[in-house]
Design goal:
By secondary structure, the chain is an alpha+beta fold. It is 15% helix and 36% strand. The chain contains one helix and nine strands, in the order αβββββββββ. The chain has one helix at residues 14-37, and strands at 50-59, 70-78, 84-87, 95-97, 103-110, 113-119, 125-127, 138-139, 144-153. The strands form two sheets. Strands 2, 3, 4, 6, 7 and 8 form a six-stranded antiparallel sheet that branches. It has a three-stranded mixed sheet with strand order 5-1-9, with no helix packed on it.
């Protein structure tokens, strides 16, 4: 009766497998990292006269991406004296959701100034602010993609 060796990875190829496995693991990790960071690399150009806004939301508390959260764009209005105010209309202001890696893209919206609101305006939300604490105004120009970069929130 033949004897079958049931020990995994035994034999002359064992050393080769031990050398290849860490390399394969490293390549796999680099591949995953490349996939995650490339979520904003293939953003299509907006339709003529429109704009696209893209970015990523990350938690300051955990350092992790904020998945499946609302990203809304409040329109900025100016009066004759140059004073500005913003308005978020839950029914008509543009918005989207972050994906599982915290990325968001909202395509083909009106080119204008916006204030970005992260989260549900009725419960937990944050405005994107300048380092001074003032609400940041984002000027989304026609026929271009505005990349916000990483937006950090305190939740």
């Amino acid at each position: 009766i033949p004897v079958i060796n049931r020990e995994p990875f035994s034999g002359p190829g064992n050393a080769l497998i031990k050398k290849i496995t860490p390399l394969a693991l490293l390549i796999f990790i680099l591949f995953l990292a490349a996939c995650e960071t490339s979520s904003l690399s293939n953003i299509p150009d907006p339709e003529p006269g429109m704009t696209t806004i893209a970015g990523r939301v990350v938690s300051n508390l955990t350092g992790e991406p904020v998945a499946d959260t609302i990203v809304r764009f409040a329109e900025v209005y100016s009066n004759d004296q140059g004073e500005k105010a913003y308005a978020l209309d839950e029914a008509f202001s543009p918005g989207t959701m972050t994906d599982e890696n915290g990325y968001f893209v909202v395509s083909n919206i009106a080119a204008r100034e916006y204030v970005i609101v992260i989260g549900d305006p009725r419960t937990k939300y944050a405005f994107v602010t300048e380092s001074s604490g003032q609400v940041k105004l984002w000027n989304a120009k026609a026929d271009s993609v505005l990349q916000t970069g990483t937006i950090n929130v305190d939740y």
